[in-house]
């Protein structure tokens, strides 16, 4: 946060007065997912010295963190918070940017989060069992 005296709870309260679309938990989750993403990208060496993530990098980090934290319940949890598509993550990020909790470059936009991934493929598919095609043995005659 740019102003260390400003409490994150206060920031969320202020944001939600103007934009009540997303629950408080969504903001805490996004902040934790951002920390997770930064750590993972540092480990893999895929983050530049600026510590700035692209929208796509953050979306992938959010996906991995959400699956790790909530397992097969990830979709219902996100939906409970008002998150139904990648653009919702972008809206939350830019709400935090407007309150100067997060920074952005001139190239960053909420559009960076549009069309990131389909939620059913990202959050449901990892927990769906593979379909097994039954093999029917024909009886041998004679």
Q: Can you lay out the helices and strands and say which pair or pack?
A:
Layout: H1 8-18, H2 24-44, H3 55-70, H4 74-80, H5 86-98, H6 119-124
Could you give a quick summary of the protein structure above?
The chain is mainly alpha-helical and about 140 residues long. It has helices at about 10-20, 25-45, 55-70, 75-80, 85-100, 120-125.
Radius of gyration: 20 Å
DSSP strand content: under 5%
Mean pLDDT: 89
SS content category: mainly alpha
What's the total count of β strands? Answer: 0
| Helix percentage range | 40-55%
Provide a count of the helices. Answer: 6
Low-confidence stretches: none
Query: H/E series, N to C?
Result: HHHHHH
CA-to-CA gap between the ends?
80 Å
Looking at the structure, what is the overall shape? elongated
Describe the main β-sheet briefly: none
Please describe what this structure looks like:
By secondary structure, the chain is mainly α. It contains six helices and no strands. Helix 2 packs across helix 3 (55-70). The N and C termini lie far apart (80 Å).
